[in-house]
Amino acid sequence: MEVKIKEVSSKKELREFIYLPARIHKDHKNWVPPIYMDEWVFFDPKKNKSFDFCDTTLALAYRGEEVVGRIMGIIHHKYNELHGENDGRFCFMETYEDPEVFHALISYVENWAKEKGKDRMVGPLGFSDKDPQGFMVEGFENPIVLATNANLPYMPRLLEQEGYTKKVDCVVYKLVIPEKIPEFYQIIYERVSKRDDIQLLEFKSKRQLKPYIKPLLKLLNETFKDIYAFVPFEEYEMEDFANRYIFLLDPNFIKAILDKNGEVIAFIVSLPDISEGIKASKGKILPWGIFKIIAARNRSKQLDLLLGGIKKEYRGQGLDVMLGVKLMETAKNKGIEYIDTHLILETNTQMRMEVEKMGGVIYKRFRIFQKPL
User: Fold this and answer.
1) Do 124 and 196 share a domain, yes or no?
2) pTM above the 0.70 mark?
């Protein structure tokens, strides 16, 4: 039957859009469902302020009455203006292994972007680098973690057949936590610990953590401003982000360093992996899903790095070592065995060098593609 593309225009169609991946990935053992409560907020222009400065389109592919694919198109005006680009983006693309459906969906967003005067398509890339980005191209045998794509191997292959080429890769390292911190790091840690102009802050409760959420995200804005696809948090987004994730976090795995005035100058945010809990709850938080997620978090042997940053004038002074040593000490005490670094741009040579110095090995790779229009 002929493939037809229809823009999402009703709550029923949005429901089809949100729940389609569960059907496509029903036999995919490493797939992790989204948290559906968040999906309904994310795709609602009234609740997700990112829609305010972007043009967007959500579309479904049909064969007869059956939904067989989906895609989102984004034109991020704020990012394009800030970086002198004229790009359209595609993201949240899902299809079965069907070249005809894939072609119909990608052609739909390309034509949509061309009509709006864009001269290049990039993706998978959402509103910002905080959304899942890139198609996985290596490491399909490894489990997926929060906020990363779980595409099957045919997706990048079908995209390349449509004329797309690599723009940039993001790599993910697996780092086994050593029994003993290497001596050269221990020396740096002891030297930095003697400074009287900084203070290491370790959190024991969410109540203690909450006042620091905005300072952490403000520092993230400052330190990530030149990272590809990063969009700074607005004040209201900081609130949204905190409300969205704070209930999942374990404060023990968040560390910060303050200067003598009590301002945050460095931080790291990590989370014991909750993927198995999300799978067990089938993406539903209520009424009992949250308990499955927390139980999975508490027994996980893997720590997922999420965010981190150091104020520019404090870089190269060993603050990263202080954070890393304390994080690994906490992880070891909690029974964590290894760390997933989450996505690191392949061009971020400084961070990659530090991870590799600790014995980190690349075990997953995600690729953002591009195509001139």
Assistant:
1) no
2) yes
